[in-house]
Amino acid sequence: MRQITFIVIFSFIIASAQAKDKNGLFLNGNLPQSYMQDSLFSPQNQISDKWWKDFNDQALDSLITLAISNNQDVLTAIDNITTARASFRIAQSGFYPSLNLAGGWSKTRSSRTLADGTSPYSSVIQDYAYATVTASWEIDIFGSVRKQAESAKYSYFSDIDTYNAVIMSLVADMATYYALLRTYQQQLIVANKNIASQKAILDITEVRYNTGLASQLDVAQAKSVYFSTQSSIPVLVNSIRQQINAITVLAGMFPPQLYTWLSEPNILPEYIQIVPVGMPENILSKRPDISAALQKVKAAEATVGGAKTGFLPKFYLNGSFGFASKDMNRLFNNNSITYQIAPQFNWTLFQGTALINAAKQSKSQYDATIRNYNNTLLQAMQEVDNAMSAYSNQIKQVVDLRELVVQGEVTLKLSLDLYKRGLANFQNVLDAQRSLLAYQNSLVSAQGNTLTSLISLYRAIGGGWQSYEYQK
Length: 472
Known about the structure:
Blueprint: H1 2-23, H2 58-70, H3 72-92, E1 98-109, E2 125-139, H4 144-210, H5 216-250, H6 259-262, H7 283-286, H8 288-308, E3 314-325, E4 337-346, H9 354-420, H10 426-461
Helix pairs in contact: 1-8, 2-4, 3-4, 4-5, 4-8, 4-10, 5-10, 8-9, 9-10
C-alpha cells in the first residue's frame, strides 16, 4: 500500500512539473501590434500563395515550377520526411504487443555408457519437436511509450515544416537570382547604348580634329571614355553567364542547359506595388521555419516527460502458447499443449545519478529548443522590418535616380551642342558622358535592388510555399 501511494504522489509531481514546463519562456505574447507605417504596405490583406504571379513573367513562373520538381534540397527534405515518418511508426509500435513464432525439431543421441543401465526405459536416441508463439507487451501505465511516440511525431511534423521552409526559400532564391540576371542584362543594354553614343561623339571629335577645330587631346579623351565603357562588357557578359548557371543548378539541371533560353535579355518584372504584409501575429502561421522550431519544442517536451518516467516502474505482460512432443504425429495433440503467463514489473531503484542527469539533460535540451524558437521568431521579425525599410527607401531612391538620369541626358546634350558650336571645351562633354553612364547604372542597380527587396519581403512574411505544402 505504501508503494502504491508513493507511485501516485510521484506521478503527481511529474505531472505538475510537466505542466510548469509548458508555460515556457516564449516571446509570442510580446509581438508588436503592427509593422512600420507606410502607404506601400497594407495590414488588412494577406500575401498571395503565389506572389510571384504578380510579376506577370512567364519565364519566372516556369523556373519556379522547374525548381520545385528538380531541386536537390527539396528532394533531400522529402527523404528526411520519409525517415522521420518511419521513426514515428517505429515509436508507435511500442503500443502493441510483440509476437514471435518459433518451431523446430531435434534429434539427439546420448552415450550408452553414461545412460542408467538399470532403467529399462533409458534411451540413447531422443526426438523432440515444438511449435510456440510467445508474446511480450509493455503496459504503458505511466506514459513512457506514449512520450516516445509523441516526441517522434513532433519530430516528423518538424521535418514537414522544414520541407515547407525549403520551398519558401527556394521560390524566393529563384526569384532573386532571376531578378539579378535581368539586372545584369539591363546593365549590358545600358553599356551598349552608351558605347554607341560615345562612338558617335568620338567620330565628331575626329572630324573636328581633321578639320583643325579640335586638338588631338579631345580625340584621346573621347577614346579613353569609349574604351573604358567597352571594357565593362566582358565583365557583364561573364556575370550574366554565372547567374544563368546559378539558376540552372537551383533548378536541378546542369549548366549550361538553360543558357540559350535565359540569355535573351528581358525587362525587369514590375516591382512597384502595394504589399499585403498583414499583421505581425500572422507570421506565426505564415513562416514554416517558425512552425518547425515550435514542433521541435514539443518533441523536446515529450522527451522530458519520457525521461521522468524513468523514475517509475515498468509493467510487462509476457506469455507463450505452443505444442511440444517427442513424436511428430502427436505434436498438435491436446496433451502436447504448453503455455505460460508471466506478468512482471521492472523498477530501477538505483543507477547512480544516471536517471537524474538524464532528466536534467532532457530539460536543458527542452529549454534550448525554446531559445531557438524565440531566436527564430526574432530573426523573422527582423527580416520583415529590414525588407520593408529597404523596399520603401529604395523606391524613393529609384524616383530620384530617374530624375537624375533625365538631367544627365539633358546635360550631355547641351554640353555636346555647345562643344560642336565651339562655345565650350570638350571636358564638359567627357564629364557629362561619365556621369550619365554612372547615373544609368545606378538606376538599373536601384531597380534591381528594389525588386530583390520586394522578394525578400515576400519571403520574410512567409509566402510562396502554401501551394506546394507537403501533405501528411
